[in-house]
Each structure stands twice: as structure tokens, then as C-alpha cells.
Design goal:
- Chain B: One of its GO terms (molecular function) is metal ion binding.
- Chain B: It is found in: Mitochondrion inner membrane.
- The complex is a heterodimer of chains A (82) and B (199).
- By secondary structure, chain A is an all-alpha fold.
- Chain A has a domain of 56 residues.
- Chain A is built from 3 helices and no strands.
- The radius of gyration of chain A is 18 Å and the shape is globular.
- By secondary structure, chain B is an alpha+beta fold.
- Chain B has a single domain, classed as 3-Layer(aba) Sandwich (Glutaredoxin), CATH 3.40.30.
- Chain B has a 7-stranded mixed sheet with strand order 2-1-5-4-3-8-9.
- The relative contact order of chain B is 0.19.
- Classes of the chains: A mainly alpha (82), B alpha+beta (199).
- At the A-B interface, helix 1 and helix 3 of A face helix 3 of B.
């Protein structure tokens, strides 16, 4: 087995908590990451780098999904209607 | 009118019976999870698929470095097992975890990880080849991502919980959207209508 041990249950919970605090901050500041730098750093310090990447992607996906649900899917403009 | 009602009920039961038999034949033809596997449990003892015969099993494939999905699915699986334990007269369910990351998830790592979930939760690992064969038998997609400078990586994989019957056949599979309560209800239904597949 290579490298570091997997996060323990306590470490997982701490990471998820830091992530949730960061996300709540983003939610209340219209996704302005500049307003949430301290929480971002806490999130990065509590979670393995691979998890930070994973959760960043997840947040993007959740936002995209919400956009689809509220705005609907807007297909690219058709070349021309027949 | 009573006789017609009884006749209709009989026909409906016959139809349900036929549908169940057909579904079982389809499941067997799908051959999901067929073929033996050779793995090791968290004490290092060799375990093969035939060790699971005679028991109901809820099986999940995952890895210990998983950010969120695996702990959530394991909690759910174990919660379903707990709910079923509360129903008198049902046979016990064996919760089982097979790693898709044998490079890091050796017996000791698995033991440490699974301890947090349910006392009867067992884990299996093996060589890369053995694990690949086991995942392949269940058509579980596995793809390790690129490692970062520290050597850490995540493993992309199908997120599925399989229900195996005492005859070893995969009876159902459950995705992320099912709740623990739905799992328990479904397992119970399978147990109550269980017929071993005719040879």
C-alpha cells in the first residue's frame, strides 16, 4: 500500500464541515470567492487536495444542474429554421 | 361472484409467479456476478465467491480514499441492514465491501475504514488482477485518476449496491438515488418472495 492513510471518519467529517461552511459563504455572497478566502483556506487545509478538486467540480455541477432546472436547457441557436 | 373473484386472484398470482420466474431467468442469463472470485478479507484470509452462498448479501464496490460517495453509500447500506435486523423472522443480511483500489486498500486499511460503519460489515481486497476480475464479474466500471504530486488520486467507479440471494444470483441492484428505507423494503420483498432458481 502506497502513501498516506485514508482520512479517518473524524477527518472526513471535519473536511465536509469546512467545505459546507465555505459553500454557505459562497451562497450568501453570490459565489464571490474573494469574500470567502479565509473559509477557502480552512477548507483546503482540512481536506486532501484530491477531495478539494472533487468538491470544486461537484459545486460546479450542482450549480449547472440548478441552472438547468430554473432556466431550462437553451440549445445552441439553430443555423436556420426550415 | 365469489368464485370469479377467487379465479381472478389465482390467475393474477400465477401471472406474478411467471413474471418472477422470467425475471430470474433473465438475471441468470445476464450472468452478473457469475464466476468465482478469489480475494482476501480484512484478516488476510482467502475468500471466494462460494463463501457467500447460503446468505443474503448487500455488496458495494468502493475505495477508502473516496471523498463522499462511498461513506454515504456505506452508511445507507448499513442503515438498511439495521432496519432489516429489526424485522422479526427475516434471515440476516451480510453487508460486504470490495475495494476498487487494491494498491492502497490492503487488509489493514480496509479494516480501519470499515470499522466505523457496522460491526458485521466485511471487506475484501486482493491483487490488482483479482480485484479487476471481481469488479469485471459485476460489470463495475473502475478508472483510477491521475495522481497529484503527493501521489494521491481518486478512483472513478460505478456506484451500485448489489443484492445477492442465498443461491448466489444477483437479485437486484440499487443506485445512489435509493434511500436506506427503500433498500430495506426491496430486500424484504425479495426475501419474502424468494425462490431459488431452478437448475
Amino acid at each position: 500500500a502506497a502513501g498516506m492513510a485514508a482520512p479517518t471518519r473524524e477527518e472526513r467529517t471535519a473536511c465536509w464541515g469546512a467545505r459546507d461552511e465555505f459553500w454557505q459563504c459562497l451562497d450568501s455572497h453570490g459565489d464571490d470567492a474573494a469574500k470567502c478566502e479565509k473559509l477557502r483556506r480552512a477548507f483546503e487545509s482540512r481536506c486532501p487536495q484530491q477531495w478539494v478538486k472533487h468538491f470544486d467540480k461537484r459545486r460546479d455541477f450542482l450549480k449547472y444542474k440548478k441552472k438547468l432546472e430554473t432556466e431550462g436547457y437553451i440549445p445552441p441557436e439553430a443555423a436556420g429554421k426550415s | 361472484a365469489g368464485l370469479a373473484g377467487a379465479g381472478w386472484l389465482y390467475l393474477r398470482r400465477e401471472k406474478e409467479q411467471r413474471l418472477r420466474q422470467r425475471r430470474l431467468r433473465d438475471l441468470r442469463a445476464l450472468a452478473l456476478g457469475q464466476g468465482d472470485f478469489q480475494l482476501q478479507d480484512t484478516s488476510g484470509a482467502p475468500r471466494s465467491r462460494s463463501d457467500l452462498l447460503g446468505r443474503w448479501v448487500l455488496l458495494y464496490f468502493g475505495f477508502t480514499h473516496c471523498p463522499d460517495v462511498c461513506p454515504e453509500e456505506l452508511e445507507k447500506l448499513c442503515r438498511a441492514v439495521e432496519l432489516l435486523e429489526g424485522v422479526p423472522g427475516l434471515p440476516p443480511v451480510q453487508p460486504l465491501f470490495i475495494t476498487v483500489d487494491p494498491a492502497r486498500d490492503d487488509a489493514a486499511a480496509l479494516g480501519r475504514y470499515l470499522r466505523d460503519f457496522h460491526p458485521r460489515l466485511q471487506g475484501l481486497t486482493g491483487t490488482a488482477e483479482q480485484v479487476r476480475a471481481a469488479a469485471g464479474a459485476f460489470r463495475v466500471y473502475v478508472s483510477a485518476g491521475d495522481p497529484d504530486p503527493d501521489g494521491d488520486y481518486v478512483v472513478d467507479h460505478s456506484v451500485l449496491t448489489f443484492l445477492l440471494g442465498p443461491d448466489g444470483l444477483v437479485r437486484d441492484c440499487y443506485g445512489r438515488s435509493r434511500t436506506a428505507e427503500e433498500l430495506a423494503r426491496s430486500v424484504r420483498r425479495h426475501m419474502e418472495s424468494y425462490e431459488p432458481l431452478p437448475p
